[in-house]
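Lecture notes, unit on protein representations.

Consider one protein chain, 103 amino acids long.
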Amino acid sequence: MNDEKGRTEVININVIQATMTYSKEDGYVGNVQFGVEGHKNEYEIALHSKRGKEWGYGLFFLHESGKEEELLALEDLLEEDDELFDFFIDTAKEKLVKDEKQE
């Protein structure tokens, strides 16, 4: 996230839990539950990719609704910061479970 002077702002992410599964039918489906330093609420990012190359996502509050401004700022950051988005994908991929019946 850039501040008024264009400097990159560093955020601290605390991963709570991550999962990912793969099947021929659904492709890769994962999620990462996490907290952001300075934010009251925790979040969950849901990830999906048919072949593991192009990823779609949804960003949600984990337990209860919180400040919409914080959620929108985090979503903007995900859109701008490929490294952060890749971090979530890699974190979920580390927990990959494949459907043995479909391989």
